[in-house]
C-alpha cells in the first residue's frame, strides 16, 4: 500500500495515521482503483499527505480536496 510506505517515512501519531488512511481508502474507492501497485495510487497517497499538512484533517473533506486538487473528475 503506497500510503503505508509514505507514513513510515514521516512522523504521524496514530490518530493522524487513521485519518490519512481513511481518506486514502475512500479516494481509491471513489476512483475505483483496486490495484495498489498502480502509480496513480502513489500519487493519491502523496497528495493526501500534502493536503493534510496544509490543515485539512477531516477524512471526507481530505479525500474530496485531494481528488479535486489532482484534477481527477469525480465519478458519478
Descriptive report:
This protein is mainly alpha-helical and 76 residues long. It has one domain. It contains four helices and no strands. Helix 2 packs across helix 4. The relative contact order is 0.19.
The total of helices stands at 4
Mind summarizing the main beta sheet?
none
What is the oligomeric state here?
single chain
Question: What is the chain-wise order of helices and strands?
Answer: HHHH
User: Mean pLDDT, as a whole number?
Assistant: 89
The fraction of residues in strands falls at: under 5%
The coarse silhouette is globular
Helix content: 55-70%
Distance between the termini: 26 Å
- Strand-pairing-aware structural class: mainly alpha
Uncertain runs with pLDDT below 50, 5 residues or more? none
Please compute the radius of gyration using only Cα atoms: 11 Å
Taken together, the total number of domains comes to 1
Number of strands: 0
SSE blueprint and pairings:
Blueprint: H1 2-9, H2 14-30, H3 39-53, H4 59-70
Helix pairs in contact: 2-3, 2-4, 3-4
Amino acid at each position: 500500500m503506497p500510503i503505508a510506505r509514505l507514513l513510515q517515512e514521516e512522523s504521524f501519531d496514530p490518530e493522524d495515521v487513521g485519518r490519512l488512511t481513511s481518506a486514502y481508502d475512500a479516494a481509491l474507492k471513489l476512483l475505483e482503483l483496486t490495484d495498489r501497485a498502480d502509480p496513480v495510487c502513489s500519487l493519491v497517497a502523496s497528495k493526501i499527505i500534502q493536503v493534510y499538512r496544509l490543515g485539512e484533517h477531516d477524512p471526507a473533506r481530505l479525500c474530496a480536496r485531494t481528488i479535486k486538487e489532482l484534477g481527477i473528475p469525480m465519478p458519478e
